[in-house]
Amino acid sequence: MQKCKSRLFAAAFCLAALPLFAQSSEATLAEMRLAFQQLNYMAAKACGEKALQNWQKLAPQNLIEVYRVLGIIAYTEGDFFEAKKYFEAALSLDADLKLDSLYISPKIQKFLREVKENLTAHNGHAPVALRYVAVPDSRPAAAMRTLLFPGLGQLQKHQPRKARVMMIAASAGLATTGVLYFRREAARESYLSATTIARAATTYKRYNLFNRARNGAAVATAGIWLYSFFDALLAAPNQPAARLGLAPAIGGGEFAPLLGVQVHF
User: Fold this and answer.
1) pTM score
2) Measured between alpha carbons, how far is 52 from 132 in angstroms, rounded to an integer?
3) Which has the least CB within 10 A, 1, 9, 220, 226?
4) What gap in Å lies between CA 73 and CA 46, rounded to an integer?
5) Is 259 helix (H, G, I), strand (E, B) or coil?
6) CA–CA separation, 8 and 18 (whole Å)
7) CA–CA distance, 32 with 45 (Å, rounded to integer)
């Protein structure tokens, strides 16, 4: 029971901490925007790089904004290779990325167009340090499915082995609770129909035993339901499986390495 309380407390703490991470990221982005508007590029760059350290917590539109700001700052500092890298990363998320012509110089506008044209000329295969695929978080929907029956959320998160274990455990718990309920009712009827004190004492002990067993099975089944819910809500989905193979190189008969990643939506 103590372990169960500790696990529930830890799960509640994680749920309470989730908004704090979001607030921290939003605060960093707000500092970056303010510093950039004040032309304090050093502070804006520091905030942008700090935000990228936890890029998984950023929404796609916020990630595009960070890349856009860092690309502009890099170009202003004369680091054109760094600016190209940030603009390409932003374009990998938004191919129609545009800069505000009222605040951004024509030189930077032209540089972005050249980067975009270069990507188009290479059919999107220009070397980019890192590309992102926006994958929606499946955990809230998985947790709602788990409320219907344990294991359904784990199936949605592509965890079939864990899902089978939880489904079997929940089914066994429900079946055991049901059987013990009917046994308890039968023992209760025997107790109420007893005609002697000795018979009543014997049947009451039997009724009390089945009643406690039924309550224990119900509590265990509820515990499985809760564990499955918090596991679906808090545990990360399975990581995409990467496969390395060979594919024909563009414009030639040679073969080039190809890394394919399967992402589940």
Assistant:
1) 0.45
2) 12
3) 1
4) 11
5) strand
6) 16
7) 7
